[in-house]
């Protein structure tokens, strides 16, 4: 719309760039000044609950972990081990803080500064649950073809590292990647990985992110919760 991007305090005093918040009894330190989307992805709140509740006894890989919100929920849900990956050093520092705030040990729940694409290609580990919540790969229509290849690659590699019966929670937050296209991308990734996947649920932003019928771009977040059958 051509509006100027501004960053600043709307109400009250800015005594610190970070604040501590609580979501469903879990603590998070949020950088409201420099963080992405004011430092915390509120649109994933319900999905964090759902996925955390399914993680008991699991070996979890959280890719593009950012500040490790999904990781904290999985650890709280009883996951035996959660590996959080992010290429950003500040994000990894914040992720470790959030796990520490909730008393989860770095030995069982390590945070690794790494490129997700490279890690998935090189790791020898398999996981009971993998979470893919990347930043938008397509920020305009020109990026769609390249983004499609990127989404397919990370989903294919993730599927290869899932155990039979393991779950994949995969998301796209780009409104230029429509839901039907995202479904086809993941289906193609499963075929290339030689795996059969079953759809457990379609995931989206919570009801506190309503979508106007005349503004389909508001339904930017789409996700699939899948189980590997073989």
Overview of this structure, please?
It is a single chain. By secondary structure, this protein is α/β, with parallel strands linked by helices. The chain has one domain (42-228): Vaccinia Virus protein VP39 (Rossmann fold), CATH 3.40.50. Helices cover 30% and strands 25% of the residues. Strands 5-4-3-6-7-9-8 form a 7-stranded mixed sheet, with helices on both faces. A two-stranded antiparallel ribbon has the order 1-2. Helix 3 links the parallel strand 4 (81-86) and strand 5 (111-113). Helix 5 (144-160) crosses helix 6. It is globular.
Topology:
Elements: E1 18-23, E2 26-31, H1 45-53, E3 59-63, H2 69-76, E4 81-86, H3 89-101, E5 111-113, H4 116-122, E6 127-132, H5 144-160, E7 162-172, H6 179-192, E8 197-204, E9 222-228
Parallel strand pairs: 3-4, 3-6, 4-5, 6-7
Antiparallel strand pairs: 1-2, 7-9, 8-9
Helix pairs in contact: 1-2, 4-5, 5-6
């Amino acid at each position: 719309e051509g509006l100027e991007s501004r960053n600043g305090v709307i109400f009250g005093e800015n005594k610190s760039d970070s604040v501590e918040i609580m979501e469903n009894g879990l603590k998070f330190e949020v950088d409201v000044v420099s963080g992405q989307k004011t430092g915390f992805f509120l649109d994933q709140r319900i999905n964090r609950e759902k996925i955390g509740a399914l993680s008991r006894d699991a070996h979890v890989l959280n890719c593009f972990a950012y500040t490790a919100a999904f990781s904290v929920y999985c650890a709280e849900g009883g996951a035996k081990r959660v590996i959080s990956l992010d290429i950003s050093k500040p994000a990894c520092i914040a992720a470790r803080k959030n796990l520490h705030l909730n008393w989860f040990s770095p030995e069982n729940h390590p945070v690794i500064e790494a490129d997700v694409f490279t890690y998935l290609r090189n790791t020898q580990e398999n996981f009971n649950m993998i979470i893919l919540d990347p930043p938008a790969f397509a920020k305009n229509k020109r990026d769609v073809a390249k983004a499609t290849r990127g989404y397919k690659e990370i989903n294919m590699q993730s599927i290869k590292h899932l155990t039979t019966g393991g779950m994949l929670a995969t998301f796209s937050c780009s409104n230029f990647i429509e839901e039907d296209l995202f479904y086809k991308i993941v289906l193609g990734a499963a075929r290339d990985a030689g795996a059969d996947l079953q759809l457990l649920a379609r995931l989206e932003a919570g009801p506190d992110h309503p979508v106007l019928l005349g503004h389909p771009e508001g339904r930017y977040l789409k996700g699939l919760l899948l189980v590997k059958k073989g």
